Amino acid sequence: MNNQATTDGVLSEGEAMQANPFDKVVLIALTIRIQLGASKKLKVVKEGYGESCESITTTTDTDTSMVRANKKILDSPEYEAIGSAANQIRTFLYGKMVPGGQKIFKSGTYPIPIAILDSVDEALKEKVDYFNLAVQKFLEVYELRKEEAKQRLKDLADESDYPPLEKVKNAFGVTYNFISFGPPQSLEGFSKDLYQREVAKIKESCAEASVEMQQTLRTLFSDLISHMVERLKPGPDGKKKIFKDTLISNAKEFFADFQARNIFNDTELEGLVNRCRNILAGRDAETLRKNNNVREVTAAALEKIKLTVDEMITSAPVRKIVLD
Q1: Domain final residue, candidates 132, 147, 180
Q2: Residue 6 — φ and ψ, nearest 5°?
Q3: How many other C-beta atoms can be found within 10 angstroms of the C-beta atom of residue 150?
Q4: Beta-ladder partners of 27
């Protein structure tokens, strides 16, 4: 086994085995419950075989396995707002977790650096409150939206498609739990030998995952810089491109969380991130829009960083860590 660090700033397997970098991480296990659908599948029957208002009738020689039909039983912006709020929660945690975690841990589990856990928890509470508020607003108009849909569906309307309000209330919810990554401390009291074996398994898994997760962080940084360069450089016609303020604010948010998310201590990438941070220091979106010289110089400097980080990115095997 190689116990030396690689020359590109990535931890060697030996180093990863010496100290579990996931000691810097807490897992958030997220469950979002949306058990009320806005559409329902219609039955497909052959002509003369029990047609009903809930059926699509075909000719007798039609292969019904080739036909699919649905009806929309709710047309509600309030319902759609619930799905949007759920996506905001997932997107937020994805942006704060250790990059590559979605490839290592099972779905719905987010490895969050302990260094930013307090701020993540506070923001997550706000997003869950927003989700719950969206649910409440939908519940207030549920009966109205149901009647509107039934009027539009006419013969295809079916009261049994709509659960009673009390049941609908229980169809939505968000829960999340904090889980430490490692064997339970109680196991050590039961059997030190068994506990040490479990610790060794986790360190081995971390060693196998380290390269993949570091390369994911590098790729995220490359994508961020690539997008900035693309928007700051003029188009084929020589005209300036339009960009939102988030072009800069997203980069600065990445810088703010980088140290905490860089749990494998990728020193080469850290150097490039610091260079990028210095380039953008004191520059906001409005300055880059108005000052052509600053815009041109910034794009050129960022493009050099992009070329460097792209050379660092390599592929690596990955093994999922499944937490039971």
Answers
A1: 180
A2: -70, 160
A3: 16
A4: 111, 179
DSSP-assigned states of every residue in 70-108: EEE----HHHHHHHHHHHHHHHHHHHHSPTTHHHHBPTT
Per-residue pLDDT of 264-292, as tens digits, reads 888 999 999 999 999 999 899 999 999 99
| Residue 173 covered by a domain | yes
Main-chain dihedrals φ then ψ at residue 88, nearest 5 degrees = -65, -40
Same domain, yes or no, for 298 and 207?
yes
Degrees, nearest 5: CA angle 14-16-22: 165
- 108: its two tokens: 């719905």
Q: What's the CA gap between 43 and 55, in Å, rounded?
A: 5
In this structure, are 146 and 205 located in the same domain?
no
The DSSP 8-state label assigned to residue 182 in this structure reads S
Phi, psi for 52 (deg, rounded to 5): -150, 175
Question: pLDDT by residue (tens digit) across 171-208?
Answer: 999 999 998 776 666 666 677 788 778 777 766 766 66
Read off the pLDDT band of 224 (50, 70, 90). Answer: very high
pLDDT exceeds cutoff 80 at 83: yes
SS3 34: strand
* Residues 26-38: tens digit of each pLDDT: 899 999 999 998 8
**Does residue 168 sit in the same domain as residue 205?**
no
Within a domain: 50: no
3-state helix, strand, coil in the chain (%, to 5): 60, 10, 30
Report the C-alpha gap between 273 and 280 in whole angstroms.
11
Q: For residue 11, which phi and psi values (nearest 5 degrees)?
A: -65, 135
**DSSP helix/strand/coil, 110:** strand
Residue 169 lies in a domain: yes
Contact 81, 93 (CB under 8 A): no
To which residue do tokens 């986790």 refer? 202
Global pTM value:
0.77
Q: In what order do the strands lie in the sheet with 109-113?
A: 109-113, 25-34, 172-180
pLDDT band at 66; cut points 50, 70, 90? low
Q: Please report whether residue 45 resides in a domain.
A: no
Looking at the 3D structure of the chain, how many domains does it have?
A: 2
